[in-house]
Amino acid sequence: MTISMYQASVPVFLRALSNLGSVLRKGEAHATAMGYEPGMLLQARLAPDMFPLVRQVQIATDLAKNGAARLAGVDPMPFDDDETTFDQLYSRIDRATDYLQSFTAAQIDGSEGRQVKLKLRSGELEFDGQAYLLHFSLPNLFFHCTTTYALLRQAGVMLGKQDFMGAPR
Fold first, then answer.
1. Which of 6, 65, 72, 145 supports an S-S bond with 96, CB 3.0-4.6 Å?
2. Burial code of 31-56, b = ≥16 C-beta within 10 A, e = fewer?
3. pLDDT of residue 165
4. Which pLDDT belongs to residue 142?
């Protein structure tokens, strides 16, 4: 069975963002139940030199939406990184989800060889579409989703593997 570039990207991005939203909702509910301001969790870090939870979510949504756009050969829709509340993060995930759902298989299938260039602080990276998806976009997306999960677990939120993975489909 061969999986198309669309199937390997957009549905995976959508599921990761859906699960991320569910994990965040559990985090917010935990803080409320424990009697502290949920927004405090948004600045949680695993280590002083790591990004806080809010930035992990921003990066995860960027990786998903930008990944699909680059595979489709279009400029990614920019998002401001100005969220300061859980509700704003949920809205960001919803906007990224809506954007992802606007892509069609016809736009992304066949992008395996499409050139993808990224300008990062560390310099420019160049990939073909398949390498971009498999070796950059997906691993980074799951890193930031996992880090969000770990931050919430460290804060005492009762989460398990099923929360991260989502219900079997």
1. 65
2. beeeeeebeebbebeeeeeeeebbbb
3. 87
4. 97
pLDDT tens-digit map of 60-70: 999 999 999 99
Query: pTM of the predicted model, to two decimals?
Result: 0.95
- Whole-number Å distance between alpha carbons of 156 and 150: 10
Is residue 143 within 8 A of residue 18, CB to CB? The reply is: no
Under a CB-based contact definition with an 8 Å cutoff, are residues 59 and 20 in contact? no
Burial call 143-160: b when 16+ CB within 10 Å, e when fewer = ebbebbbbbbbebebebe
Report the C-alpha dihedral over residues 159, 165, 99, 71, rounded to 10 degrees: 140
Q: Give the pLDDT mean for 89-96.
A: 98
- Tell me how far CA of residue 12 lies from CA of 23, 69, 117, in angstroms: 16, 14, 22
